[in-house]
């Protein structure tokens, strides 16, 4: 191991929470070392204790047992001295939405007592650094998700902290902004700042110098990402398939006991084999990733098949496209958010709306579910014109919002009862549908728990269950797995795949490219217009170049957006 | 349609009832408040602190002072012997009034000249001052009659209908119940919508097959039921604890209460339909509530207000409910007389709900 | 607990932030500045406990010069509006329908007895007792009119004046007993309770709900500074509301102001600090806007309305309720305000009230700081 003294030393850390008479253990004797001058990633499934650990390091919580030493000080006795030397960016960073970007910065500068002379220089530096200079007079509430995160980061960096704690900073941030965020943080490390970055995205964790894998409140493993990946050498393969049959193949492979992980990637299914299992015929060996190690590692811990798959009756084929828009336009005052978007989604298709934050995809999405009337153009959903009979259209669609937006103060069963009742189900039929969701999504055990207190992955499943309770023909998903850990994500998407194969049409918005890989077709929206439409592999091909022969969807996204900007200067 | 509404109503009740803090603020405070405030809300004066400044010191003046002392309205607190002491005692609020008997009181009385007695009253609380003055006048008058022994002249015999002993509580309680129920109902309604909007569940609600009208109906029923239950609890306290007579029709009271609560919910929905956050909703409720309490005639009769205030008071449902609940309690108000109070509340309820529905619809296109 | 000194720069930054938030959300400005104007206009022009032109029915069984004289005397009273009814039944019906608040019955033998010495001429007054207070006041007005009439006709009669002792009354501090004079100071207390407790309770719980408190807590800013900044900002807003109220009261409604502005400022500041302390305490306990609003309503707004002496005189409440009013901060404030407006700097009243308010201020502050240590759990 390294010679340098650890900047954070954690020994036997225990943290319990008492909620409504029940004690839950968030951290259970966790010990770890965080070394200076590098980015350390914290990864682990939802509910593993990542946020609790961050808060303990920041001195916001008191441990029940064990010790934390941060920058050589005790986190309990000297919390305030530590807080003066660290920067912390919580999951929901505390930006004041009524204040402009510059005013938010000024507030934190005052709090850190940065004097006027140093301030001007520091502001200029940070604004340039984060690319926020043109937006400094905009209210924080009106910034896009990516800009908010960058502003939050700038605020946390004001006092030149020695240690920077980032709690899932890239959730809800589009690929372009995510790259910028990484560039900024990597520069910081160059300046000698130590960074602790918790994330649910393992492609991100791969860029860290060191990774701590946490589950069940204990440290499962620690090491360099490459070391993790190296251990998986020879177990990762890609199986090529025609794009139409890939979901069935993925499901078949996932059920195979010799396969730990099967994941759709364009026109291929990427698999990770169980230890010592032989590779299937026709599989091409690929380089192992950190994510493979993560999945393989946790597959041991977690019982497999924990979530049963919902069974579905095949649907009678109906005529016409499931969703069709023609020249959809939406204005907000003088600002045209959506500028003539037309597309058509066939029944049983998984269709993705992609785009950077603020490009107009959420507005389009809202118009399609009838939450926002279009300024002009038409939208038909399940053959019903939203302009004429929105309620009739809503009976045939299921909707899953971006943020968890079920009733957190109701139990899982009560939420299902409500949404079922609101969708005209009652009596035995409702009971049967609730059973279907509870069993199909593995929620039986938590049926009586308050939904607000469930781990994120469970919440996501419940939200999907609520959206599906009335067997809708069309399913609307707004960034469904943003911030969800890889295991829950896989589960979620395999359920979506199954639904699509049974004739359910799925419309997804996302700026998380792994989600996009699951789509049959993608529509890339930028500056209110459609700038590209096609299959995931089709979009990748458009971005392929000599320098980058095999681009990822992420690369394609960044490339297509940059191209459009070049051809159509704003 | 009713199945969908029922699902929403059940959900609303569960949401409210799950949180022990919410349960706490909804049940106990109304009952405690009605009991404490009913005792507090009293315009009667008893045992008013009196200073005595007797310059005459005769048998007659002492007899008059004694009349004050034995009356229930006054109690002697201090004896005063100069004007400075009198003003100091009043200014420092040691006494509410000073009875001043001049040095020639007995002489005038015996000579048959009009004898003068003065009462100095603290005017900072004008209502108390007026009542104290009335009591003092009555004591002096009775004293005079007895002295002179006259049986002639004119006598005023007063009889009070509906409330023979003029008990303030009988008047205040039915009104207090209406006011407390009204504020609670408005707050629950306004916050329930604003909260869903802040937490993002409102969009989820809007994409279900529930139509905007159904959402409003579903949001209306729980506060009405809660308000009805609370009102019932408080009315029971009025009847069994304070022994306010209940002379009217219980059915009419229930009917009026429901119309009244519906109008309160309508206003709450209207407030929440124009506010974006919970803070705005709550402040909006208070912005309406505070003037509405004043204008409703809860503490001061509407008839005493200038005309424009009386017009404004037509917009406050509690104005009508106060008349109804007091009337049904004390006067056995018949339906025929209740009707003129009932329909304006219904109009307010329908108008505000229509406004809220229109706004919600507008947002949905 | 915080061992750090309070930094001026941090405080200034936090205060500026609060100020910008106040300026950009109109709802708090409306509560602080518009609400007092509305309330004071309503009260100043609208609310009065003094009835005027009370409709009172008169039923005359046999019209004579005497009954006509009494009717004129009733009409001459500025407080009464007599309406003639043909018979008792009609008058009773009018009373039920609230067209009159009471009625007077002059029986057949009224004139005969009024002239003679044998028996007093009975005047029967029937009042609607539902509103006990108004009923009592009406009774007083009718009595006054009758006495006036008897006096004016005494010369023509053989009967002696009914009352050989005259009672003069003098109201101190408020000679004409204007309701506005005593209600407006009470209103100021209501408005400041709303700003101090309700608004503050809402804004702090909002910081918890939105997660901004967590970000503030890891900065070097201490809880003391965060709370102090809220205090200073809403303090300014509250004093603004106070200035508007006092200005309107004095200049528009001519409410007399006999004390010193310095003393008024000191008392208002102390009360505001106590109210803000309560608001902060509620919000640190509630951390949820719904519960915070309800709690502020029940523990500050309603007691300020009912138990402060603003509407109902504390002196007339039963002893246990009087005891409860001692824990209502608004009680001391209303008392002090009424005195400082109408009576002047009466130290015997002002100082004990000021001391009580200071006690509240300290109590709530210590409790708030103790409750909100710089941790999440």
What does this structure look like?
- The complex is a heterotrimer of chains A (570), B (365) and C (377).
- Chain A contains 19 helices and 24 strands.
- With 570 residues, chain A is an alpha/beta fold.
- Among the domains of chain A are: 8-228, P-loop containing nucleotide triphosphate hydrolases (Rossmann fold); 234-287; 404-471, no CATH class.
- The longest helix of chain A has 16 residues, at 175-190.
- Chain B has 365 residues and is an alpha/beta fold.
- Chain B has two domains: 6-41 and 167-364, no CATH class; 48-148, abc type-2 transporter like fold (3-Layer(aba) Sandwich), CATH 3.40.1710.10.
- Chain B has 14 helices and five strands.
- In chain B, strands 2-1-3-4 form a four-stranded mixed beta sheet, sandwiched between helices.
- Chain B is elongated and about 95 Å long.
- The mean pLDDT of chain B is 84.
- With 377 residues, chain C is α/β, with parallel strands linked by helices.
- Chain C has a four-stranded mixed beta sheet with strand order 2-1-3-4, sandwiched between helices.
- Chains in contact: A-B, A-C, B-C.
Topology:
The complex is a heterotrimer of chains A (570), B (365) and C (377).
Chain A: E1 8-19, E2 22-34, E3 39-43, H1 50-57, E4 65-70, E5 73-74, H2 79-83, E6 86-89, H3 101-111, H4 116-130, H5 145-157, E7 163-167, H6 175-190, E8 194-198, H7 202-205, E9 210-215, E10 218-223, H8 225-231, E11 236-240, H9 246-255, E12 259-265, E13 268-273, E14 284-285, H10 290-301, E15 323-332, E16 335-345, E17 350-354, H11 361-368, E18 376-381, E19 384-385, H12 390-394, E20 397-400, H13 412-422, H14 427-440, H15 456-468, E21 474-478, H16 486-501, E22 505-510, H17 513-517, E23 521-526, E24 529-534, H18 536-543, H19 553-567
Parallel strand pairs in A: 3-8, 3-9, 6-7, 7-8, 17-22, 17-23, 20-21, 21-22
Antiparallel strand pairs in A: 1-2, 1-4, 4-5, 9-10, 11-13, 11-14, 12-13, 15-16, 15-18, 18-19, 23-24
Helix pairs in contact in A: 3-5, 8-10, 9-16, 13-14, 13-15, 18-19
Chain B: H1 2-18, H2 20-40, E1 48-54, H3 59-70, E2 74-79, H4 83-91, E3 97-101, H5 105-111, E4 115-122, H6 126-148, E5 154-161, H7 168-199, H8 201-206, H9 212-241, H10 250-274, H11 278-295, H12 307-313, H13 317-331, H14 335-364
Parallel strand pairs in B: 1-2, 1-3
Antiparallel strand pairs in B: 3-4
Helix pairs in contact in B: 1-9, 2-7, 2-9, 7-9, 7-10, 7-11, 7-13, 9-10, 10-11, 10-13, 10-14, 13-14
Chain C: H1 8-24, H2 26-46, E1 54-60, H3 65-76, E2 80-85, H4 88-96, E3 102-106, H5 110-115, E4 121-128, H6 132-153, E5 165-172, H7 179-210, H8 212-217, H9 223-252, H10 261-286, H11 289-306, H12 319-325, H13 329-342, H14 347-371
Parallel strand pairs in C: 1-2, 1-3
Antiparallel strand pairs in C: 3-4
Helix pairs in contact in C: 1-9, 2-7, 2-9, 3-6, 7-9, 7-10, 7-11, 7-13, 9-10, 10-11, 10-13, 10-14, 13-14
